[in-house]
Amino acid sequence: MPSNVPLPVDLVHAMPDPALVVDAQGMVTLANEQAVEVLESDPVGRHLSASLRVPAVLDAVNEAAMGEGGANVDYDVRVPVPRSFRAHVSCLGHGKGVLITLRDLTREQQIERMRADFVANASHELRTPLAALSGFLETIQGAAKNDPKAQEKFLGLMKSQAERMRRLIDDLLSLSRIEMNEHVKPSGEVDLTQVAAHVRDVLSGMARDFGCEITVDSDGPFAVPGTRDELVQVIQNLTENALKYGSSGKLVEIIVRKNGEWAEVSVRDHGPGIAEQHIPRLTERFYRVNVQDSRSRGGTGLGLAIVKHIVNRHRGRLVITSEIGRGSTFTMRLPLAE
């Protein structure tokens, strides 16, 4: 480490936020571990612009290097996942360089956005089952007041509507939790072949009810950086969808393969397929190819949105292909563990 760094090295490394020291020429002389993690490379010894390509921040650093005070600059990054930061730039003294600290604003912005989204989505999607429950209660208290058979029928319908609301709230909460942590890269390691076999076993009863078979075909094991519960949720959501909407093909295949530096898990059905115009919108919240059919099968319209955000958090990709009359394939592509 250079001996002429104008700020105590231990102090920079003790900072809880990402911090860098830049000299008068814009070269990074010091960076703590948090800065290396955020920038996804060690910037020390390189010009700041090689690691932080934000013109407004670079301009603020140039001004601070000339002793023109400090500045706060908010900026966004789009890859590998969307994140928001505030850079605080301050001069360490004439000719002594500039201190840059980065504050991650992603979580608090997501919390605010999710709060608004949750209220809007919940109020819209819960309105229908609540209206149905209200109508059934009025019927039981009125026209069916003395009709036990009718009461039993309407109580059954009320139970199904209450169950629909429970599923919707569970999925909304799950989606909110995943979105809140989407910018945080997973640190564990998961074998996708084992996860696929686990999902097959868990959904074997559901498959029998649909008169369908689930198979797992893998050349594994294939380890990827990830959170096991979330990857189970991805493959389970995709397989449940295949059973609900493609079980007429009598077979759902979970295929695990290596493709270069990537591991791929494909869930393939042999059902009716999905029209091409719907495919780009399938991962949108509450988007359904057939609203009535989805609701009758217990769908909330959030399953694929959850899948998309989990895959994003794992720095992967979701690829959807389908052909009318020949079925659909949903492929999750994740980087292999080093």
Characterization of this structure:
The chain folds into three domains: 9-104, PAS domain (Beta-Lactamase); 106-184, Orthogonal Bundle (Helix Hairpins); 185-338, Histidine kinase-like ATPase, C-terminal domain (Heat Shock Protein 90), CATH 3.30.565. It contains ten helices and twelve strands. It has helices at residues 9-14, 33-39, 55-65, 106-141, 148-180, 192-202, 204-209, 228-246, 291-296, 303-313, and strands at residues 19-22, 28-31, 71-77, 83-91, 98-104, 189-191, 213-218, 223-225, 251-259, 262-269, 317-323, 327-335. The two termini are 29 Å apart. Residues 1-5 have low confidence and may be disordered. The strands form three sheets. It has a five-stranded antiparallel β-sheet. It has a five-stranded mixed β-sheet with strand order 7-9-10-12-11. With 338 residues, the chain is an alpha+beta fold.
Second CATH tier, the architecture of the largest domain: 2-Layer Sandwich
What radius of gyration results from the CA coordinates?
A: 26 Å
DSSP summary: helix tally: 10
Distance between the termini: 29 Å
What ranges have pLDDT less than 50 throughout 5 or more consecutive residues? 1-5
Characteristic terms for this protein:
alpha+beta, 338 residues, Beta-Lactamase, five-stranded mixed sheet, 12 strands, Heat Shock Protein 90, 3 domains, Helix Hairpins, 43% helix, 10 helices
